[in-house]
Specification:
80% of the residues lie in helices and 0% in strands. The protein is mostly helical. It has two domains: 1-112, Rna Polymerase Sigma Factor, Chain: A; 114-192, Arc Repressor Mutant, subunit A (Orthogonal Bundle), CATH 1.10.10. Helix 2 (20-42) packs antiparallel against helix 3, helix 3 (45-61) packs across helix 4 and helix 6 runs antiparallel to helix 9 (161-191). The radius of gyration is 20 Å and the shape is elongated. The relative contact order is 0.09. Belongs to the sigma-70 factor family. ECF subfamily. This is Sigma-70 family RNA polymerase sigma factor.
């Protein structure tokens, strides 16, 4: 049986055994669909190609340890969606357009996730927040939930403004790392 006649699952099992031809078959099977999806959101051929290549490179490099618990099609679609969002996030930071990103991109993401899954996502985010060290969690909550300024937090907690900034930056880094995984799970849930 030729590789192009195998199901995605059988091809993936071959890929996990380091079969390059099986990976090439999957690559050829999904490249165009993923590219069109990315291009429709990014409106740039080069960026869309970069996003899809990044996803496929990651798939190959993680093949031995990656267990896909959904369909391969759903996994690849979610991974491209995630990379598109990362692209917008990086572009917004570079251009100083994070407000535009929050207003235009995040609402689109939430439209992909069922309301029940949004509640689950919020609950998972809360779990990650509670895992922050106590002082960091306190600073984070004062900023995010009470909307206090750095100066107000510093005064309230009797610490320097730089300490507040450091605590906030550290909390954002820790949460970003863990919430990326949570976000992928939420997107996967939508795909099922």
């Amino acid at each position: 049986m030729a590789f192009n006649e195998l199901t995605d699952l059988n091809l993936w099992l071959q890929v996990k055994q380091d079969k390059g031809f099986a990976f090439k078959t999957l690559f050829d099977r999904y490249w165009e669909k993923l590219y069109v999806f990315a291009f429709n959101r990014l409106k740039s051929e080069a960026d869309a190609k970069d996003v899809v290549q990044e996803v496929m490179i990651s798939l190959w490099s993680r093949r031995a340890s990656l267990d896909i618990e959904t369909t391969l099609a759903a996994y690849l679609h979610a991974a491209v969606q995630y990379e598109v969002l990362n692209h917008f996030s990086r572009a917004a930071k570079i251009a100083g357009r994070s407000e535009e990103y929050e207003q235009n991109i995040l609402p689109e993401l939430t439209s992909y996730i069922a309301p029940l899954h949004i509640k689950e996502l919020a609950a998972l985010a809360e779990v990650e927040i509670t895992r922050l060290p106590e002082k960091m969690q306190q600073v984070y909550r004062l900023r995010q939930e009470k909307n206090l300024s750095v100066k107000e937090i510093a005064r309230l907690l009797n610490i320097s403004e730089q300490t507040v900034r450091n605590q906030l930056n550290s909390s954002y880094q820790k949460l970003k790392k863990h919430l990326k995984e949570v976000m992928l799970v939420a997107i996967f849930l939508h795909g099922n």
